[in-house]
Write a structure and sequence with these properties.
Blueprint (H helix, E strand, L loop, with lengths): L2 H12 L3 H12 L14 E4 H15 L5 H7 L17 E6 L2 E2 L5 E2 L4 E3 L8 H14 L14 H13 L7 E4 L9 H11 L2 E3 L4 E3 L5 E10 L2 E11 L1 E4 L3 H6 L4 H13 L4 E4 L3 H4 L2 H4 L8 E3 L4 H7 L7 E5 L17 H7 L9 E5 L5 E3 L12 E11 L8 E10 L16 E3 L1 E4 L5
Parallel strand pairs: 1-20, 6-7, 6-11, 11-12
Antiparallel strand pairs: 2-5, 2-17, 3-4, 7-9, 8-9, 9-10, 13-15, 14-15, 16-17, 17-18, 18-19
Helix pairs in contact: 2-5
């Protein structure tokens, strides 16, 4: 049995215990917790040598985006209201990819997105242990997260060094809009509990005349669950997870953003492991024309001509809004793109594009025939994997410090909110020794 066949067998082996396993995962977060997204039946089963190929392929695309030349130019895409006090090099990166195969059988890694995004580094703490327990029970070989750390404590210490940078945890906070309502709350909660820090809604922050930042309300991550507090809590280190469009939607104008995110930094009262500026630096707004597979092309008045020169048809791809997240606003997923779709969003050459065109790709499909009947198991499922990287201050190369997999049906976006069918949803990769299969 090769590793792809083993993956299909694992889909079937773990399906019967799916609901109890999800409850055990949720209990590792806190009593009464329920995942706000579908957890997939099976992890991504990956031999270590294949995972090494994955990481090398992704790093090859990521590495040029870490250069000062790229980041300096990318800063022009940061709206003035979100700019930090000084230019930044992001520390956290999420790289999404699928696995496909060339005609000669070699791996291809089409990448729908790269972004300087800080989420889901701690989700594995809830999902991996119960998954490994059930894999062992089903007769599958053991594995782990495969990040190259000696164990969970070493990984936690590495992330703590980057997120806190020596700051007192009692003076550090995760900044998140309505943290309890976020789909990624599980990750933020586990981060807060692991590092001993709190979660704060930016609407509960106040800035002193000297730039000091204080929270009037905050949430602590207790073993029993989130606990809300009121009072006055000073913040000197901030890990910002709220997306810029969330801040806009919540009514933060330039004055409010400056007061919270720039003035405290200018006056050396607060430092940021993640700043709102980071979300723009490696994003769809800066990647048009970068060396990606498949590339992102600006939807300007020359798009059709550019596609013709590449031998591509408009209907072979999708249109993605530059500022969209989680698959929001993508055109051409279920119905093929038309010239009218492009005309509706096209901008003159040289103007900032609002949409980008990206060619579709065919990811490897896994049969669901091994899964017991539940609804309609016909057809196949496919994986989109995410490798998360951390680039510490002073380091030349980022290090893998997180991973996740999202299973979806072919023709459907892999965002968590769209996963409803048998076999689909979010899970953890399990890296097994090379040669296992």
């Amino acid at each position: 049995m090769n590793w792809l066949a083993a993956q299909e067998a694992l889909l079937g082996a773990l399906a019967p215990g799916h609901e109890p396993r999800v409850r055990r995962m949720a209990a590792r977060v806190h009593k009464g917790f329920e995942f706000p997204f579908r957890v997939a039946e099976a992890p991504a089963l990956v031999p270590a040598d294949i995972f090494a190929l994955d990481c090398a392929a992704v790093l090859e695309r990521l590495r040029p985006l870490l250069a000062h030349e790229f980041l300096g130019a990318a800063r022009q895409a940061v709206p003035e209201r979100f700019r930090a006090a000084a230019s930044r090099r992001p520390r956290f990166f999420a790289t999404d990819f699928a696995r496909a195969f060339h005609a000669d059988g070699s791996l291809r890694h089409p990448m729908p997105e790269l972004q300087s995004f800080p989420g889901n580094y701690f989700l594995w703490k809830a999902q991996l242990p119960p998954t490994l327990e059930d894999m062992t029970r089903a007769g599958f070989p053991g594995g782990g997260h495969g990040f190259g750390f000696a164990g969970a404590d070493e990984l936690d210490a590495f992330l703590q060094d980057v997120i806190l940078a020596g700051s007192d945890p009692a003076l550090a906070a995760i900044i998140e809009i309505e943290p309890l309502k976020q789909k990624t709350f599980v990750d933020a909660f586990l981060m807060a509990r692991t590092l001993g820090i709190v979660l704060v809604d930016p609407r509960d922050l106040e800035t002193g005349a000297d730039g000091t930042l204080e929270a009037r309300r905050w949430i602590s991550a207790e073993e029993a669950g989130p606990c809300q507090h009121q009072g006055s809590r000073k913040i000197e280190r901030a890990h910002v997870r709220c997306l810029p469009d969330e801040l806009d939607a919540a009514g933060f104008d330039t004055r409010a953003l400056t007061r919270i995110f720039r003035t405290p930094e200018e006056r050396a009262r607060v430092s940021f492991s993640v700043h709102p500026e980071d979300f723009f630096l490696v994003s769809k707004a800066t990647l048009a024309g970068a060396d990606l597979d498949p590339p992102l092309l600006a939807a300007d008045e020359e798009l059709l001509e550019r596609l013709a020169a590449m031998g591509l048809a408009l209907a072979e791809g999708v249109l993605k809004p530059v500022d969209g997240a989680g698959g929001r606003g993508v055109l051409g997923v279920r119905e093929r793109l038309s010239a009218a779709d492009v005309r509706a969003v096209v901008v003159p050459r040289g103007k900032k594009a609002t949409h980008l065109w990206q060619q579709r790709y065919e990811a490897h499909r896994f049969s669901r025939r091994c899964m017991p009947e539940a609804g309609d198991p016909a057809g196949a499922v496919q994986q989109e994997l995410r490798i998360m990287w951390v680039l510490p201050d002073g380091a030349h190369e980022p290090r893998v410090a997180g991973s996740m997999v999202r299973w979806s049906e072919p023709g459907e976006l892999s965002s968590a909110g769209r996963a409803r069918a048998l076999g689909t949803g979010t899970q953890t990769p399990v890296i097994v020794p090379a040669g296992t299969f």
